[in-house]
């Protein structure tokens, strides 16, 4: 089904839309409170150094400054991090990256706080900067952390190193290549920020964007040495995140300042601070050696991954695990040998980012397949079809997964794309045109062995609203709209009857993080789980109040209705029912994201599938690549919210286009070179293809009761290799390094005498 | 000196008595001459519909209309807006929702929504002078507004819908 307004029966205006288009919506960075102070954070600005002294006296003397805090002022643990709390709130003696925090200031105005930051004197003794994994792993390097400079190693091997070499000898063709991927920036439009308000009872309320309010609360409790129940985290709405706001950012500083001054403190990071302190996508160097028989059946696959995780761990280990897991993608390969290492460096921190390591590895894997296909003179489609996993095959780590035909479904459909089947007329002198495809298989949820719980609450409120509460966040993905649609369809009530409560630890049950393409599925499971027992309670209460037989009652718009078809009003409204009851029907539930029964840590159970076809135009004069047409086919189960689904795939696709052809957070000796949108370029409306089509395949294998899979990531994963294939189709040149360099393309065209610039005459031809 | 530093000066700051119209309301404020329009809107007047993101005039999140022309409010200082008429996103739906905003809603041309006010202002500027723009004209008009969520497809559909709606009505 093509997803668009015309074909979608559930095309509803999103509930949070009106406030967004009118500017009325208060993001957490828009909030102000009486008596509020402004906070700023002093970042080291240098990538590696010993701190000799920190002097805050001058800053404290500045008129209007209310507090200046350093490591000495932390009551609890001086560290944060979702899994390993190895990132200091404030550095004490060592600086490990440019974005390390040294001190924080609260002042009457933002301007005074900014001025005070400049008055803090810090004396550093610079240390050698380890600006790449290779340098950090060399013998001369010093250790950034007690465990050394290796954060994590991961592997998956069905055959040992020496034995797989024997298999390569028997292969008809072998391709070995090394691929490089960039340090992509999330580039959410709303930078990190919020307000922390000290309450009269000694507790605090943290209004700041995060993807996991409860994890923030737990970490803040450790830092502040404060009971979790005294910390309330309000965490939605969010002006974009894409994985970048899952870790704490301004929350510890604003909390410490608020508690010290006993006044609300707002911090809203400038873009420069956001760039240097914020997470990025892991740059990876991936070497792949892949061998096939004469028909194209893959026999052996060796993969080596080196990931630059930067100064602190954050989710680096899990990202590497994900890349290792997806190194074989949707293909069944008999001999696999994958090793990865994630390395600490003095570069900016790499962490969670939409696709979670899948984008990097899929670029390499799909490119390998295309090179092999070329070497055998077979098509992109044929080599994939030959190697695709079948319905009941095991998952990529040898684990049992939910049976799926997704891989075949998306490959078949994309192969019929008009993009791949139109003849190109290479008549325009300056442009070369080409097309290509790529596919992917992407795990949802956190994977085996990682706690992945969720919970929800369904209740009738005193006001007569049917309230659904989850701990998820609205980061822009349209989750509130999705929950509304599921509630209306499952319960039969109307939009006006529903109250959706999310993103506030004071009001909702823990639901886990809004990450890993999990929220839609978790909300769906929650509503399904709670619906029947809650409905029984509601209807039996209604039966008592109305004196109607319970079997004659049902939920409907506005209230409880008789099951008779000819009635036009409810027997009792929800409001009246609520007012008549002492105990309001309420149910809470706890459940987990479905996991594989096989004890393989990180192994996923539910996968979604994506296929992409693209058309590109390569400019022979400038070497620039323009993507002119895109078609996505996504197999992720039933589409809950077509508008949200379409937005996620289209938006994710363009984000991945940026990853492929323009985006790179350049670093020089551990310092960011590209510090704002004037040098870090993300796609504008002028950079997108003139046409995009999104198809959804909703069918699941019979008996699959796991429902809709999330689509937050799948639209981003396979875009890069599809573009690379299209460039190859246009030029005959294979790109191994992202983002694609126009100079590299020009050089290649010149070598092939395809360019417009003649090397000998140095003139345009 | 960065733009931000200009408004960060705390000593020896020349203040001016700013007199201008914001959303048809006459405003009189004593502010530093170099205080930015975006700060006047957000910090002094609590008009937070105007968003702040790059602060170097690149993303368009802070777009407003000054005397009917599209401007980045992060690049304009108090002394430059003296006597002018500024309209922000809040003005667009003063009485009822503007048809541009309606089209955004119907087509789902937003996700996180943080860029949306700036997008709406940029389109208001375009469509006021050119009610039936070509795709290329739309692209040029919106090329100063970054959106990280939608991929822009929805926004283009919203403009098409607006044009369709306005032609049929």
Summarize the structure in words.
The complex is a heterodimer of chains A (about 775) and B (about 170). Chain A is an alpha+beta fold. In chain A, about 25% of the residues lie in helices and about 25% in strands. In chain A, the strands form 9 sheets. In chain A, strands 3-5-1-12-9-10-11 form a 7-stranded mixed beta sheet, with helices on both faces. Chain A has a 5-stranded mixed beta sheet with strand order 7-16-15-14-8, with helices on both faces. In chain A, about 60% of the residues are buried. In chain B, about 35% of the residues lie in helices and about 15% in strands. By secondary structure, chain B is α+β, with helices and mostly antiparallel strands. Residues about 5-10 of chain B have low confidence and may be disordered. Chain B has helices at about 5, 35-45, 90, 100-105, 115-130, 135-140, 155-169, and strands at about 15-20, 25-30, 65, 70, 85. In chain B, strands 2-1-5-3-4 form a 5-stranded mixed beta sheet. Chain B starts with a helix and ends with a helix. The interface between A and B is large, with 65 and 63 residues.
Which SSEs are present, and which pair or pack?
The complex is a heterodimer of chains A (765) and B (169).
Chain A: H1 17-21, E1 37-43, E2 49-55, H2 57-61, E3 65-69, E4 94-95, E5 101-107, H3 110-118, E6 121-126, H4 133-137, E7 150-157, H5 161-170, E8 173-180, E9 193-198, E10 204-208, H6 213-224, E11 231-234, H7 251-261, E12 265-268, H8 271-277, E13 280-281, E14 284-292, E15 298-310, H9 316-325, E16 335-344, E17 350-351, H10 358-376, H11 380-387, H12 406-415, E18 431-443, E19 453-460, E20 466-470, H13 479-491, E21 498-501, H14 519-546, E22 553-556, E23 559-562, E24 572-573, H15 574-580, E25 586-592, E26 607-619, E27 625-635, H16 642-661, E28 667-668, E29 671-672, E30 691-697, H17 714-717, H18 719-731, H19 742-751, E31 757-758, E32 763-764
Parallel strand pairs in A: 1-12, 10-11, 13-17, 15-16, 20-21, 27-30
Antiparallel strand pairs in A: 1-5, 2-4, 2-6, 3-5, 7-16, 8-14, 9-10, 9-12, 14-15, 18-26, 19-20, 19-25, 22-23, 23-24, 26-27, 28-29, 31-32
Chain B: H1 3-6, E1 15-22, E2 25-32, H2 37-44, E3 63-66, E4 69-72, E5 85-87, H3 89-92, H4 99-107, H5 116-129, H6 135-142, H7 153-168
Parallel strand pairs in B: 1-5
Antiparallel strand pairs in B: 1-2, 3-4, 3-5
Helix pairs in contact in B: 4-7
């Amino acid at each position: 089904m093509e997803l668009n307004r015309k074909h979608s029966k559930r095309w509803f205006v999103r509930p949070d839309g009106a406030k967004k288009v009118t500017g009325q919506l208060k993001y957490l960075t828009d909030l102000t409170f009486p008596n509020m102070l402004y906070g700023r954070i002093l970042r080291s600005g240098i990538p590696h150094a010993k701190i000799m002294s920190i002097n805050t006296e001058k800053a404290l003397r500045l008129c209007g400054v209310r507090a200046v805090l350093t490591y000495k002022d932390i009551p609890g643990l001086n560290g944060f991090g979702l899994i390993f709390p190895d990132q200091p709130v404030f550095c004490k003696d060592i600086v490990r990256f440019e974005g390390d925090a040294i001190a924080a200031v609260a002042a009457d105005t933002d301007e005074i706080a900014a001025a005070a930051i400049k008055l803090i004197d810090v004396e550093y003794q610079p240390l050698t900067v380890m600006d790449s994994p290779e340098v950090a792993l060399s013998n001369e390097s010093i250790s950034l952390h007690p465990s050394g400079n290796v954060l994590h190693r991961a592997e998956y091997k069905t055959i040992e190193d020496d034995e797989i070499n024997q298999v390569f000898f028997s292969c008809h063709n072998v391709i070995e290549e090394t691929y490089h991927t960039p340090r992509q920036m999330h580039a959410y439009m709303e930078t990190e920020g919020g307000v922390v308000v000290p309450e009269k009872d000694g507790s605090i309320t943290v209004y700041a964007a995060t993807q996991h309010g409860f994890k923030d609360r737990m970490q803040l409790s450790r830092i502040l040495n404060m009971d979790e129940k005294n910390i309330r985290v309000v965490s939605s709405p969010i002006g974009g995140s894409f994985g970048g706001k899952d870790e704490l950012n301004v929350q510890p500083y604003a909390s410490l300042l608020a508690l010290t001054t006993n006044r609300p403190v707002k911090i809203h990071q400038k873009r420069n601070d956001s760039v240097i302190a914020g997470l990025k996508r892991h740059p990876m160097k991936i070497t792949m050696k892949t061998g096939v028989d004469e028909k194209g059946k893959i026999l052996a696959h060796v993969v080596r991954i080196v990931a630059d995780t930067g100064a602190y761990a954050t989710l680096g280990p899990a990202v590497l695990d994900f890349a290792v897991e997806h190194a074989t993608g949707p293909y069944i390969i008999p001999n696999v040998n994958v090793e990865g290492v994630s390395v600490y460096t003095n570069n900016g921190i790499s962490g969670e980012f939409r696709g979670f390591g899948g984008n990097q590895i899929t670029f390499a894997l799909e490119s390998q397949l295309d090179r092999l296909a070329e070497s055998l003179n077979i098509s992109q489609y044929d080599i994939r079809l030959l190697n695709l996993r079948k319905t009941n095959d095991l998952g990529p780590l040898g684990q049992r997964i939910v049976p799926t035909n997704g891989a075949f479904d998306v490959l078949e459909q994309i192969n019929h794309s008009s993009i791949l089947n139109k003849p190109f007329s290479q008549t325009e002198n300056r442009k070369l045109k080409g097309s290509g495809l790529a596919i992917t298989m992407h795990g949802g949820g956190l994977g085996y062995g990682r706690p992945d719980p969720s919970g929800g609450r369904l209740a009738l409120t005193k006001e007569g609203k049917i309230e659904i509460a989850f701990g998820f966040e609205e980061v822009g993905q349209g989750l509130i709209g999705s929950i509304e649609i599921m509630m209306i369809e499952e319960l039969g009530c109307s939009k006006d009857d529903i109250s959706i409560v999310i993103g506030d630890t004071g009001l909702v049950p823990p639901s886990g993080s809004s990450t890993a393409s999990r929220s839609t599925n978790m909300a769906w499971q929650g509503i399904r789980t709670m619906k029947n027992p809650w409905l029984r309670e509601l209807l039996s209460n209604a039966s008592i109040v109305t004196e109607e037989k319970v079997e004659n009652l049902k939920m409907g718009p506005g209230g409880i209705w008789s099951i008779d078809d000819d009635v036009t009003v409810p027997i009792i409204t929800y409001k009246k029912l609520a007012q008549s009851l002492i105990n309001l029907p309420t149910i809470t539930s706890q459940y987990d994201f479905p996991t594989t029964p096989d004890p393989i840590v990180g192994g996923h159970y539910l996968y979604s599938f994506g296929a992409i076809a693209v058309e590109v135009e390569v400019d022979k004069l400038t070497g620039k690549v323009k993507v002119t047409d895109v078609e996505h086919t996504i197999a992720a189960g039933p589409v809950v919210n077509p508008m949200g689904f379409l937005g996620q795939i289209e938006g994710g696709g363009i984000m991945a286009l940026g990853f492929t052809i323009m985006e790179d957070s350049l670093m020089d000796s551990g310092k960011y070179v590209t510090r704002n949108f004037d040098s870090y370029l993300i796609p504008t409306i002028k950079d997108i293809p003139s046409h995009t089509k999104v198809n959804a395949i909703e069918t699941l294998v019979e008996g699959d009761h796991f429902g809709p899979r999330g689509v937050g990531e799948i639209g981003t994963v396979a875009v890069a290799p599809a573009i690379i294939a299209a460039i190859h189709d246009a030029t005959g040149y294979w790109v191994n390094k992202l983002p694609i360099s126009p100079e590299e393309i020009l050089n290649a065209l010149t070598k092939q005498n395809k360019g417009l610039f003649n090397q000998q005459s140095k003139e345009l031809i | 000196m960065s733009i931000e530093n200009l408004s960060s000066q705390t000593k020896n700051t020349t203040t001016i008595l700013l007199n201008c119209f914001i959303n048809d309301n006459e405003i009189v404020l004593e502010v530093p001459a170099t205080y930015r329009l975006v700060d006047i809107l957000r910090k002094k007047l609590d008009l937070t519909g105007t968003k702040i993101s790059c602060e170097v005039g690149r993303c368009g999140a802070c777009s407003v209309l000054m005397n009917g022309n599209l401007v980045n409010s992060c690049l304009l200082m108090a002394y430059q807006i003296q006597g002018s008429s500024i309209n922000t996103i809040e003005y667009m739906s003063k009485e009822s929702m503007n048809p541009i905003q309606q089209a955004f809603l119907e087509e789902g041309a937003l996700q996180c929504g943080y860029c949306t006010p700036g997008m709406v202002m940029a389109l208001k500027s375009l469509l006021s002078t050119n009610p039936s723009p070509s795709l290329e004209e739309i692209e040029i008009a919106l090329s100063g507004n970054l959106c990280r969520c939608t991929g822009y497809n929805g926004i283009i559909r919203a403009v098409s819908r607006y044009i369709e709606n306005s032609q049929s009505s």
